[in-house]
Amino acid sequence: MSAREKICVFYSIRHNFERVLENVRKRMPHAAITAMVPKGYAITARERSWVNDIVETERDKYTVKDIGAFFRLLRLARAGRYDRFIVLFASARHRILAGASGARVCECWTLDGHIVPLSRHALSVPIRLLCDAAVGRLWYWRAWLSVHRRRVRPRERR
Amino acid sequence: MRLAFVDLVFCWPPNGGADVDLYETVRRLQDEGHEVHLFVPGLEGSWERGEFNPDDLPFPATRIPFTNRSLHPRNLVARFRQAVDAYRPDAVFVCDGFFLKPYVTLALSHYPCVARYYAYECAYGPTPELCEPDGTPQPSYLREPEPCRRQTVAGLKEHITHWRLNFWAREYLAARAFMPGYYRTVKAAFGNLRAAIVSNDIMAGHLEGLVADIRIFPGGVAVADYPAEPPPSKEANARKVILMTGRAEDPVKGLGVLCQAGERLARTRNDFEIRATLADAPRDADWLKAIGWQPRTRLVDEYRAADICVMPSLWEEPFGLVAVEAMAAARPVCASRVGGLKGIVRDGETGYLVAPGDAAALAERLAALLDDAGLRRAMGVAGRRVAEADYDWTQVVRRHYNPLLEDLAS
User: Fold this and answer.
1) Distance (Å, rounded) from C-alpha B350 to C-alpha B331?
2) N or C, fewer C-beta in 10 Å, chain A?
3) H/E element, A38
4) What's the structural domain count of chain B?
5) Do A85 and A152 belong together in one domain?
């Protein structure tokens, strides 16, 4: 691993974030790790011990209505010129953020130490969303038909 | 005895009271001389289930890894049976879990099997919410399966169709809990239990006639970890701290009622501050402060800084651990007259009980406590005494678990 590799770890729920920062530092002891945290986030001494730099985002939650704020977040992520961008959840928003960060490597690090590579392809997020929606609807209609068409038999109720 | 504990959602650090309850129970039983072992499924990529390091636990534990694809009843049952059979326990405790719990209970029914229920999952089964935000209870799945099944599917529609599955929804689909046959599995699991442990008589009532032996065990606290001194007397105009801990953002916990009571108090006085374990304060009021989610170690400091503790719940709290913690910290408790809280808080002795949702009554009781340092102190001392006698973990295990184990052994 290059000693100069620049890594950004994007904030998530407190104890998850702490754990993943620790994992990143253990696996890449010489990397320059930046923790991207929401404004006003009280970083703990443990978290601080694993990172080289802390960058604060404008807010802690981003909604579709805050598209301007989201673009400012993207600009912040790109300004760091990171080699690797790490998120803790492979949600659509995190995929978009990681993909648009300009980092060569985008990954989702799970708490149990798994690393899921994230595609940087522009169409990967919409394709993924479409697939998820299709699978989800199939499951939903299966469950819906079951509860509306098949009743618990009286013998089972006794 | 060799005891196996199976928990389908255990995490450490804990995600909730059930994790703490299991941790303390297993630890104390080990201290009592029993051989114990915890079995937990670990779900790849999930922070909500099986997220712990066995080295962090003071007792032996096995994490059985699963992926989203492999987490289905047949595989879960086979792997748990294999792991537990290799341990050869004298009895099995099936602890927290949701829709997959009946399958595991059935698979391990060749052992004396005890199920621990922490909330109303025993009765509500596949219902996503136990009650409406105003506290109105949902129908019971055991008595009215059809509306429950429909309600659940409707409630999970957003999660399922967008395929954004939290562990609850994932387990619902994995267990095929929407199928009519699931009801039979649930009933059969109850029938095979040697005993069920619940937290209050409402839960016991749901299981009446289904389980041969129903026992009501309180939760506990490590009383020694909490400050034994009641709140110090403060000057009349000094700000007193009213503390609300637990899942304050959950509507059924009654923060809204507490805020209404705070508004009433703020009209006539400014000598109080309400602190709640919230990420953000829901309104702009100088008497309301969000202190964020606090780990257990820091929570003790919050209790130390508090003068009064509140638990204004709107639903039938299964137990009411927060009230017990407050009493262990020698703080008076103002709580709703619901569920397990009715048995924990002694009205007029260790605190006050008010009707759920009654902000005026809550404000009145809080005002009485704010006005009288002697009353706060006396109630705090009485609460501590009750906590030491009834809710200290050592007492809970000796008084409740040891007789159960003797019965299982016989």
Assistant:
1) 8
2) C
3) strand A32-38
4) 2
5) no
Domain of residue B323 covers 223-391
Q: What is the span of the domain harbouring residue A101?
A: 6-117
Same domain as A113, residue A67 = yes
Q: Where are the beta strands (DSSP E) in B298-361?
A: 308-311, 333-336, 351-354
CB distance B149–A147 less than 8 Å? yes
Q: What is the pLDDT of residue B332?
A: 95
pLDDT score of B5? 96
Those residues of chain B whose CB sits closer than 8 Å to some CB in chain A are 13, 42, 44-47, 51, 65, 145-146, 149-150, 152-153, 156-157, 160-164, 173, 178-180, 183-184, 187, 293
Q: What is the pLDDT of residue B128?
A: 45
Chain A residues with CB-CB distance to B152 below 8 A: 147
pLDDT of amino acid B125: 57
* One domain for residues B182 and B231: no
Number of neighbours of residue A145 by Cβ within 10 angstroms: 12
User: In this predicted complex, what is the ipTM?
Assistant: 0.75
B91-94 and B240-244 as β-strands: parallel, antiparallel, unpaired? unpaired
Estimate to the nearest angstrom the gap between the alpha carbon of A129 and the chain centroid: 15
Q: Rounded to a whole number, what is the distance in Å from the CA of A131 to chain B's nearest CA? A: 9
With a cut of 50, list the residues of chain B below it in pLDDT: 128
- Assess whether A103 and A64 both reside in one domain: yes
Of B156, B173, B183, the CB nearest to A152: B183
The pLDDT, as a whole number, for residue B335 is 95
Residue closest to A37 by CA, chosen among A17, A22, A52, A57: A57
- Please judge whether B180 and A153 are an interchain contact, meaning their C-beta atoms are less than 8 angstroms apart: yes
Token look-up 């939760």 returns B219
Cβ-based interface (< 8 Å): residues of A facing B: 13-16, 90-91, 108, 110-112, 114, 116, 132-133, 135-137, 139-140, 142-144, 146-148, 150-153, 156-157
Residues A35 and A75 in one domain: yes
Interface test with B, best of A16, A20, A152, A153 (most B CBs within 10 A): A152
Q: Provide the CATH number for the domain around residue B56.
A: 3.40.50.2000
> Is B13 within 8 Å of A15 when comparing Cβ atoms?
yes
From first to last of the 158 residues of chain A, give the pLDDT tens digit. 445 789 999 987 666 788 888 888 988 888 899 999 887 777 777 788 888 888 888 776 666 677 788 888 888 888 888 999 999 887 888 888 888 888 889 988 877 677 888 887 778 888 888 998 999 999 999 999 999 988 887 665 55
Nearest to A156 among B42, B164, B187 (CB): B187
A contacts of B51 (beta carbons < 8 Å): 111-112
